[in-house]
Structure formats: C-alpha cells, structure tokens
Specification:
Layout lengths: L1 H12 L29 H10 L5 H10 L3 H4 L7 E2 L2 E4 L1 E3 L12 E3 L9 E4 L2 H13 L30
Antiparallel strand pairs: 1-2, 2-5, 3-4
Helix pairs in contact: 2-3, 3-5
Length: about 170
C-alpha cells in the first residue's frame, strides 16, 4: 500500500490527478488466515482426483498433496529430483512455457536464484507413487535450465522425466 500511495502522491505533485485517493486509507494489520482447513482436500479427495486425471499427470497430484509443491514445481519433476526419503525441488515450469517466444521451459524456483533448491521430506506413499510412475513412463530428454544457456540448453547427462511428458 505504501508504494501505491507514493505513486499516487507523485501523480498529485505532477498535477496528473487532483488528489490522492489513497491518502488517509489504513490497511488492517490483522493477521491473515494462512490456510482454511476446510479447503485442504482429504486423502480420499486427493485419491479421487488422481484416479480421474490423465495417467501421466497422476504423480503431479501426489507431489502437490504429499510434498506441498506448487503445480509448476510438480510439473518440472525429474528423476534427479528424487532422493532417499525426500524430494529436491530445483525448478518450476515457466509461466511463459506455452508461448512461442519462451526461451526456457524450466526456470529457478520462485524467489530463488539459479542453483538454489528446497528439500522436502517425502512420505512413503509419495515415494511409492514416484516408483510406480518411473516404472510406467520412460524418462525423456527435455530442455533444462543450464546456467548460461539462454535457450534453456540441453542436459545430456541427465535426461528429464518431466511429469508433463511421462
């Protein structure tokens, strides 16, 4: 709100608008409710979603519910993300991946620099879903974020097993 009020005040000084509509507005300092418990799907609901989604996306459902990944992170899952007892989250699918001018399908995690990652413990059922997924679907070469490669580069030594393909 401070930034908006300052911008509007600048517009008043520059005589672009007569008065600042943000002047005197107070933002509530009440603690926001982090999560509404009623909006979190139960395991039964998660299983129902996984049962009805296209088979190649089933793992994405369990990665989101079991490790708290965002959809863009779950869709960037690859074989090198798997660790014993946890998942290492390094990339996410770019918000621009669907556009023709997209230079890199995979980008660093939100609010993180290239090379930074987040380790998340994986429950046994998530590890079983990963095993099942990898037994059903072949890893495919996929452009990956290689530092310094503006076009996304290719990681030949470590083929991507993107949930989007597998």
């Amino acid at each position: 709100m401070v930034m908006v009020a300052a911008r509007l005040e600048t517009a008043v000084v520059d005589k672009r608008i007569p008065d600042n509509p943000a002047r005197g507005v107070r933002v509530s300092r009440a603690d926001p409710c982090a999560v509404d418990e009623d909006e979190i799907p139960t395991l039964g609901e998660v299983d129902l979603i996984a049962e009805h989604i296209a088979p190649q996306y089933r793992l994405a459902v369990y990665l989101q519910s079991g490790t708290g990944q965002r959809p863009s992170e779950a869709l960037a899952f690859s074989v090198e993300c798997r660790r014993s007892g946890f998942v290492r989250i390094r990339w996410q699918v770019s918000a621009k991946a669907h556009r023709d001018d997209c230079r890199s399908v995979f980008v660093p995690l939100k609010h993180r620099a290239e090379g930074e990652y987040r380790d998340v413990p994986a429950a046994l059922f998530v590890e079983q879903e990963i095993d099942d997924h990898l037994s059903r679907w072949e890893p495919v070469p996929w452009p990956s974020p290689v530092s310094g490669a503006g076009d996304g580069g290719w990681r030949s030594s470590s083929p991507r097993a993107s949930v989007a393909r597998v």
